[in-house]
Sequence to fold (209 residues):
Amino acid sequence: MRETHTAESRPYHHGDLRRALIEAARRLLESEGPSALSLRAVAREAGVSPAAPYHHFKDKGELLDAVAHEGWMMLDQAMGDAKDKAPPEEKLTSLGIAYVCFARENPALYRVMYDAARDKEALPLQIQEGEDSAYCKVRDTMIELGADPDDTAELELATTAAWCGAHGLAEMAGFKQFEHLKEQLGGERPFLSAIFKHMGLFPARRTDC
Fold:
């Protein structure tokens, strides 16, 4: 049986309760799946009273929204780190690889992020409006590589295409049918890089005359 954490073994300060509950929810998601998630189970995992979560979340739906928001922030950070470390010509591919790796390393959290969006029939506003969002990182990198910032429709289509490509690859990358390609190419990352390059989604780097 999975060991739970008691209030004595997992103390928290009053101002950290919301954070403690979100982190507890994430642990439960990854270890036991969404079906195991409830406010009572999260309270038990966080080591607080069953009533404590209701000070911050009116129901499971609100808790899942908070967990999804945390997931988007984590994705933003992962993609930002990848872009910062990559050479200019590899920045877009590195962003895509970071997206896929995040999805594969946090499968339950990733699913909740999109499930929460589907329930509202829209992705969170922070994705397209936040300057540091994952979406904006892709869009801005395309501009850096030569995309026309004034052609807003084309830029949005290109960014959306790249996002959809990464999302699709995240769904499929773990299939066993691709193991021979990973072996031939030298591992997971070279495989992902090759797939992105074959998609032809990313603009060529602009060269000045």
